Amino acid sequence: MLLGLTRTASHQAVLAAKLAAAEHWRPEILRLRIVSDIQYKEDTAVFTARANGYKIMTRLRGAENLHYGDELTLRKYRLFPLRLKRNFFITAYDDYLYAHGYALRLNADARDVAERRARRSLFGLAIDCKNKFVQVQKQTLPAEQARIMCTFLFGAASSALDSETMTEYRRAGVIHLLVVSGMHITLFVALLQSLSGCLRLRPWPSFWLITLVNVLFIFAVGAGPSVGRAGLMAEIALLGRTVQRRTDAYNTLLLSGLGLCLWDPLLIFDVGFQLSFAATFSLFFLVPVLTERLNFLPCFFRELVAVSTAPLLLTTPLCIYYFGGVSLGALFLNMLVLPWVETLTYIGFVSSFVGLFSLPLATLLNTVSYGLFVFLDWLVGIFAHTYIDLPQIPLALLFLVSGWSFVFVLRPRWLGKYTLILSVFVLGWYWYPGPHNLRVIFLDVGQGDCILLARRKKALVIDCGSESGSATGEVLKQTLLKLGVSRPDVLLTHAHADHYNGLLDLPRINTLALPDSVPEWLAEKLTDKARYLNGELPFVEIYRAAQIDEKNENNNSILAALTQGNFRALFTGDAEAAAEENFLDILPEVDLLKAGHHGSKTSSSAEFLAVVRPDNTVISCGANNKYRHPSREALDRLSVWGNIWRTDIDGAVMVTVYPGSYRLETSATGRRADFPIRVKYF
To answer: Contact at 8 Å (CB) between 654 and 441?
Structure first.
């Protein structure tokens, strides 16, 4: 543990230094080396590259026939430094990349590649071999089944499965089938051992041959946490067999975990790593106990129930915590597919090898695979409907609930007492109303607006949209999930996409308030989700324009005023100076202002600011946006009255209102300040 803590601290310091250095690194000529498999998404190649010691997530439009090890020279490109901790409570894609050692994202066009040099290596050869096996599957199976088979055998990097299929498998509770794991390594190593036996190799030559091929296979399928854990465990067991020493399952599991964490100390925070080790531990620890407890069942069915149930006992709490839901039919579906899924994997590997020499024979073998996949897809489609969404539940409580199963299996005599204790905790969590302080969160969604007012388990969303599109809705949904809110109230200030496109992803809305100028199609889409329309909204009072401005939709923005004790805040949508003028006689002074139109020079006029007199102003805008928001003129006017907080610099901004004061804090920069609530004058 001491070694791990030291390694983690040094690793994070190195990553932080690299990220800081990469912020301003923009060479005139960029030379990249591809260090991963290439995944093609539509007309774009996605891969990992290295340059000047930096690990870069690269998207190269219009590229084809790229290989591991190729060196590319670019004169025209766009480099983006990672923006970390953009929002509270949730992890964004840049955070994920940073945790895996990346420092930059790069976008470029294949036409701008000035030079390409091929460099071959053993790892590149392994990936090329894997890609040949992938081509066999694509030539011998229909497109949809081929994509699933390739993901099934060789991991997500081998085939771009659409998000709908991935979501269906996750909701059905069998997403583990689309991850290369212990089953694949076991079958692969068994095939290699059979081959070495046929060749009559001695123990040590056999060990080194299997190790070499095993390492190359792990690298070729993406070296994810699950296959990395399985590969290390196989190597430890293989070493024990070679030196004729007995191996212990728990020691093998923990040694593999130690090895992976020493290699990448942040891996312990990876969801795949946690799920893989939880499932494997439960197979070692719980399956024998469950098998003994179920001795009243027939032998085959007893083992099937034990193997299907054990992993779910430890992985279900993690799945509920990270994904906000649970599949009620996961146990039954796993019991249905486990007896033949190993056969499907074996057929897939054999058909891949056979297809290199005879495609007709591989097609014949994959006829069986096709039938099994059609049956599997049918089952997944049915069982995906058994998934239920859940509010955010503390992980400790989830493991307490999971503990009931362990007590039932290991100590049945304690069941009554444990159930009573568990009921107290569950009821306490259910009746706990949550923090009583109001929080106003300005989410960082890029060039757009998304504001969340939340107290206890009630929330009001004021706009949610961005030029980044659908990712905005996901940010809002995940934040609401973490706050324990399943059906928020919604206020749309005006009908511009950078204010509403994220709202379209909300599954349910409680009360919905729309502007008078909203298009019919948009109103229909949002009202279909709502329980009430234009009812009373929590926390705020709204101000509507007296008449619709046909020329400028910004001036149709609804203004919303928040009053919490003596604290006042004003949210102005994209209202420009002409719209602000209409409300000068009725608006109060405020502690907090959301600047109109992302800090445009046409908003936040001097006359308007002289009326509302904000102590703090929040500007919601995207980093390096094409409109150059916020404008210098608006910043000068706003700075006269108080502090300015910007989502493009500070990340999300959260305001917490207390009885006599309020606090502003930011997610990205860690900026924090407390302010007294001042007396207002009308």
So the answer is: yes
